[in-house]
Design a protein that fits this description.
Layout (H helix, E strand, L loop, with lengths): L1 H20 L4 E5 L3 E5 L4 E8 L5 E6 L8 E5 L2 E6 L9 E8 L2 E12 L6 E4 L9 E10 L6 E6 L9 E8 L2 E10 L9 E7 L11 E7 L4 E11 L3 E3 L4 E10 L3 E8 L2 E7 L3 E4 L8 E9 L2 E12 L3 E5 L3 E5 L4 E8 L5 E6 L8 E5 L2 E6 L9 E8 L2 E12 L6 E4 L9 E10 L6 E6 L9 E8 L2 E10 L9 E7 L11 E7 L4 E11 L3 E3 L4 E10 L3 E8 L2 E4 L6 E4 L8 E9 L2 E12 L7 H30 L4 H6 L3
Parallel strand pairs: 2-8, 17-23, 25-31, 40-46
Antiparallel strand pairs: 1-3, 3-6, 4-7, 5-6, 7-8, 9-10, 10-13, 11-14, 12-13, 14-15, 16-18, 18-21, 19-20, 19-22, 22-23, 24-26, 26-29, 27-30, 28-29, 30-31, 32-33, 33-36, 34-37, 35-36, 37-38, 39-41, 41-44, 42-43, 42-45, 45-46
Amino acid sequence: MCGQKLGTVLATNLLWMVFAASEDLKIEIGPSYKIAAQIGGSAKLTCTMTGCEAPTFSWRTQIDSPLGGKTHIQGNMSTLTMDPVSFENEHSYLCMAACGSNKAERGILVELYSFPRDPEIEMSGPLIVGSPVTVTCKVPKVYPSERLEMEFWKEGSHHHVDLHDIEEEAQGKLETKGVKMTFTPTIEDMGKSLICEAKLPIDEMEFEPKERRTTQILQVNIIPKNTIISITPSNTVTEGHSVTMTCSSEGLPPPEIFWSKKRENEDPLPLSDNATLTIEDMKKEDSGTYMCEAKNQFGKSRKEVEVTVVKPLTVEISPGPKIAAQIGDSLVLTCTTMGCEAPSISWRTQIDSPTWGKAHNERTKSTLIMNPIGLENEHFYLCTASCGDKKVEKGVQVELYSFPRDPEIEISGPLIVGSPVTVTCKVPKVYPSERLKIEFWKEGSHHLVELYDIVEEAEGKLETKGVKMTFTPTMEDTGKSLICEAKLPIDEMKFEPKERRATRILQVNIPPKDTRLLALPSDSVKEGDSVTISCTSADIPKSQIILRKKTEMGDRELESTDGVYDIHAAQLEDAGVYECESKNEGGSEVRRLMLDVKEIPKYFSPQLLALYCLSSLVIPAAGMVIYFARKANHKGSYSLVDALKSKV
């Protein structure tokens, strides 16, 4: 058919060329004597006449069918535009140009084809390893479809596939052609290509492209498989401990992990969407079946694990894990077990030496009593509890020390002004004594004294340590303090106190002096008179005053108040030697006096005695009257009242 059309056009053109040669006119048609136009696209034909200022144009098909396009004239050129191109445009078109009575005609053949898009690759479903899949390559809207050639292959296995029709779309003579193949994907197919190549090799028609290719990279998927669970430390967990479960699964794309726990008569309890599930502080109710589910968009895989929570066998020692105990005190270690109703409990030292204590067991508790604590108790003690095939131990370190009392300050003798004295500070029963530090000073003259041993007492490793200093007291030292500070700074051991202090107030003495013993009103009195024996002393501190009377039977101590002894009616036996001793911390001083008691004659009658006494009063009174009278004479008057006032 195409050959017939071409022959007709050539004959017409030949006649036109003969006709045109006789005229001085030229006509050109383009783009050439034939064109290939793609169905659905656009095509433009032009007709130009030269040698005429205002030509007229007309278009027609050789068989006088509709043009299937729009014409447009501009100057000496006419265009025929076909948009879109369809099957009705497959003709030989003639352009006739006239200039006055002269006419010219020229023809062009329009040939059609359709090859609009690259091949399309479609799959029957996702590529899953091990699952067969059908892959189709289609070339849509092809014309002429009988000229189409196709090849379809998977990279690495190039093979030609026979062409067959896929009539998914048919518009007139436009057809969708395709090929297909079936294969079972493997993991090795990942990243390889499917290649579909289509050709429309019509050599007698000029159009591009005549070959199209589509490539699709294979993305192979794997349904989750080989799902496994690892559990640490094990699927039997001690109450209070933690467990970690890790789930892994193979799949492409990598599957997501979901954890849940089975519940009776209920949906599983969601727990986590992480691969690792950790449960802290496990309780009895946490026992059960845990499920790991691996999912991707192509499938899922599930794995289960059974977890059992058991009560632990535990041991606690109090006090612990390290205890500082003072030598000589008592210590009670208590071992308490949990997780067993009837455990077997025993005590031992780490080096299997004797425990040097008494153990007492009562159900789930055992006590070890050490009283008193000695150096032999300085060990690491272990409490062992057994329950069936379970056995657990807990230990406590017993560390010893001795720092039982405050320092003791001793002075070699009384503090006497001007007399040197040695002062000692001792810290008794110290352990470990090599760690002891002592400072000893007198208030106002702080200085560190070198430590030296005073082995007044040594019991095993217990020692009494001490320091001393010598000084000469002065009166200014009175009221000041001697201060002794002892420290046992063992930071790694917890005990109190680690520091002790002793303070002693200084009382400086002055030996008694200027002791005086007096008899008032006199040391010679008459029988029946009153007399006072008084003793005083100038000293610091105030002395103790002791009054004595010397007798043939020995010294008789008198009951006195502040050194004063009163005799209200002296008798002859009160006469004799009286002694006063004044003493304090600094020394003593003694003074004596002789008291004479004169005897009254026996022939005196009571009346005479009364007269004697009265005369003893009258004479002094008369003397006073004379004295006041003389004073009155000096003043020119006398008044007993005024005279008495002047004495006040």
